[in-house]
Write the structure tokens for this entry.
Amino acid sequence: MTPAPSVAVICGSRSDLPALQGCFDTLDRYGIAWEASVISAHRQPEALASYVRDAEARGVRIFVGAAGMAAHLPGVVASLTARPVIGVPLDAGALGGADALYSMVQMPPGVPVASVAIGAGGAKNAAHLAARILALADAELAERVQALRAEQGASAEVGIDPRAGRAER
Ligand code: AIR
């Protein structure tokens, strides 16, 4: 059995991969080991169940499930494991991702999915949230989380000079 990284990212289609790049990059930034798979909850339900069981047995701590349309992937993952599951709703159809968001956020009590925002921003936040969960039991990672927060604060704008942005008007 190959030992597992801390985070397993699963998406419903290869067409979802571009939206997830920020998730992979952010996990790398934290130095968190991850693996990624394309498994559709609707097209390959049995493969999904065996992957999740195997990943859990190998030691994966957090699952990220990303999908568009009727996006039941993270919900099904949450039904198969007691490890934390983060859902990333993607904009893949006529409803702009609201379909996927509702599919993830309206889980029945007892089967939680931590849903983030729709699309690439949500995908990055899935990585940030995974880092914060893992940091509860990893002091070095907790330091990296704090360092990244400080970096974000330092680069954020505080005051805007009224002359700034004139050229854009
Ligand atoms: N999907 C795949 N199986 C079940 C669902 N909900 C999602 C994928 C993708 C969208 O359907 O996650 O966002 C379209 O997939 P495809 O493969 O047709 O491009």
About this structure: The longest helix spans residues 139-155.
